[in-house]
Design goal:
Number of strands: 14
Structural class: alpha+beta
Number of domains: 3
Helix content: 25-40%
Strand content: 15-25%
Distance between the termini: 87 Å
Number of helices: 8
CATH architecture of the largest domain: Sandwich
Largest sheet: 6 strands, mixed
Order of helices and strands: HHHHEHEHEEEEEEHEEEEEEH
Strand order of the largest sheet: 4-3-1-2-6-5
CATH superfamily of the largest domain: Urease metallochaperone UreE, N-terminal domain
C-alpha cells in the first residue's frame, strides 16, 4: 500500500514487543539520528521524524491497537477509496459519531496516521519536498491576520446519556474519515456546543452540536433524573430494601410498609451535574406490579391471603 510504514521495523522490534522494549529501542535510535547530533543531515532528520512517529503510535495502547487493525484491514481488503466516499468538505453541517473506525474511508496511510495522531494533514511534509539539505518549511500564520479561507463550521454529535453524564476523553469519527480525540465535559445537554480548535475549514474551529440520546430507563427533567422502578406486592405491603439503578451504579433504598404505586423516593445528589460541584436529584417513582404466571404454590398462598385479609380498598365507594 502507498505510504504504509512498518513501525516495528522502523524501531527494530518485533510485533510482540513490550512497552519497555519499544521505549528502549526508541531512545537508542533517537540519540543516533537526533538532528542536533547530525547538523545539516536531512536523511538523519527524516529518520528521526519516522522514529518519533513510530514511538508515538506504538507506545500508546489505543493507538497501537488501531494501527494493528488498520494493518490487518489493508492486508485483507486492500486500500482504495471507492466511489461516493465522503471527502473533507462533507462533514460540515453533517453528523459525526463516536469512534467506529471505517478504514476504507482513508485514501492512504498518511491520512490515517494524521488523524490517529490528531494532526492537521498539512502539518506533515514529505522529505522529498526538502531541497539542498534544508529543513521543510513549517506551516505558520501571522497571529494578527486571518489565513485565507479560514472559517468556523458545525457538525452534530449524538451522545448516549451515560457518556453525556460522565464526560471524559472520547474518540470521535467525522464523516470524512478523520478521527479525533475530544475531551468531553461532564453533564452535556442537548443544544450544547463543544469547540474543537483548528478542525474547521482552513484551520478554523469546528463546533460540535450535542444531541443527548433518549434513554429507555432514565429521563432528564432539568437537572433531575426521573425513573420508574417496579416492586412486588409483598415488597410494597411488608416494606423492603431494594437496589435502585443510578448513573453512578446501584443505590440501596428502603421501602416503607404499605408502599403505593406512584409513591416517590428522592435520591439527593444522584441527578445530573450542575456546574462542577453540584448535582440534581434522582426522582424514583415506584410501581407495584402484580405477578403473572403463578405457580400452584403461589396461587395457594394468594388464595389463603384472600380468605384471611381484612383490607377492603373499595369499602368507601358508593353503592
Amino acid at each position: 500500500m502507498e505510504n504504509f510504514r512498518n513501525y516495528y521495523d522502523i524501531l527494530g522490534v518485533s510485533r510482540a514487543a513490550t512497552f519497555s522494549d519499544i521505549k528502549q529501542a526508541y531512545r537508542q535510535l533517537a540519540r543516533q539520528y537526533h538532528p542536533d547530533l547530525n547538523p545539516g543531515d536531512q536523511a538523519a532528520e527524516d529518520q528521526f521524524k519516522l522514529l518519533s512517529e513510530a514511538y508515538t503510535v506504538l507506545s500508546d495502547d489505543e493507538k497501537r491497537a488501531q494501527y494493528e487493525k488498520f494493518s490487518e484491514y489493508w492486508q485483507q481488503e486492500g486500500f482504495k477509496r471507492g466511489p461516493g466516499k465522503p471527502g473533507v468538505g462533507d462533514i460540515f453541517g453533517g453528523r459525526i459519531s463516536l469512534e467506529d473506525f471505517g478504514f476504507g474511508e482513508f485514501p492512504d496511510f498518511n491520512v490515517f496516521v494524521d488523524q490517529l495522531l490528531n494532526r492537521r494533514p498539512n502539518s506533515r511534509r514529505d522529505s522529498a519536498e526538502a531541497t539542498n539539505g534544508s529543513r521543510p518549511e513549517r506551516d505558520s500564520y501571522d497571529a494578527k491576520t486571518t489565513p485565507p479561507g479560514r472559517r468556523d463550521a458545525e457538525a452534530d454529535l449524538t451522545v448516549p446519556l451515560e457518556k453525556a453524564f460522565r464526560g471524559g476523553r472520547e474518540r470521535i469519527r467525522l464523516e470524512d474519515g478523520r478521527s479525533l480525540e475530544v475531551n468531553m465535559p461532564a453533564g452535556m445537554v442537548t443544544g450544547q456546543r463543544i469547540r474543537l480548535r483548528g478542525q474547521g475549514v482552513g484551520g478554523g474551529n469546528l463546533y460540535l452540536r450535542i444531541q443527548v440520546d433518549p434513554h429507555p430507563f432514565y429521563t432528564l427533567q432539568g437537572n433531575d433524573i426521573y425513573c420508574r422502578v417496579p416492586v412486588t406486592p409483598s415488597e410494597a405491603a411488608l416494606g423492603s430494601t431494594i437496589d435502585i439503578p443510578t448513573l453512578d451504579g446501584p443505590v440501596r433504598a428502603t421501602l416503607p410498609q404499605g408502599t403505593q404505586t406512584g409513591q416517590i423516593i428522592q435520591l439527593s445528589g444522584r441527578g445530573y451535574p450542575v456546574g462542577q460541584e453540584r448535582r440534581g436529584d434522582q426522582i424514583v417513582e415506584l410501581e407495584v406490579v402484580v405477578p403473572t404466571g403463578l405457580s400452584d404454590r403461589e396461587k395457594a398462598l394468594y388464595e389463603e391471603l384472600r380468605q384471611t385479609e381484612r383490607f377492603r380498598p373499595r369499602a368507601s365507594l358508593p353503592d
